[in-house]
Protein: Primosome assembly protein PriA
Amino acid sequence: MKPERRALTVEIRAKGRRLEGYAATFGNPAEIGGRFVETIARGAFAATLSSRGDILALVDHDPGRVLARTRSGTLRLSEDSKGLAFALDVPDTSHGRDVLALAERGDLGGMSFGFTAIDEHRDGDRRELRAVELHEISVVLAWPAYDGTIIQARSLETGAPFRLYAERTLKLLELSR
Structure:
């Protein structure tokens, strides 16, 4: 099976040299290439997370731009009721500094993940991912596939969200419905 990639607009927070947020959210429909609508079921990442395999954090799915990995402990992943939560320690590299600067400004496109579907349910043009083998998560600099959540960056000095960006994003989401 060929690995797949999905991207979504999610909440991301910059806290010092750490990014936190969600790489995937449950039950959030996404139109995939105009071919079908896909959702992720709760628990879809459970088997991968319990296997303790090495999962990477990349920039735009590029293996030449590694930000963190689970094997070294610089990437931490968990599932909660909302989705696949992550925390990654951003390296002091050109890629890491670029990602942090964009996160702090609210300019990141979202998050993405690379996976192989293990268990899925199809019903016409709908697909539900019930279990996936997770290979990597990626910071997406431009356009994600999944919409519906907000990217937020928190400033190092105050910890406050960039409210104007969040408010503008919410208004755009409301208008698009």
Summary: The two ends are 35 Å apart (CA to CA). The helical segments are 46-51, 94-105, 163-176. The CA atoms of residues 56 and 63 lie 9 Å apart.
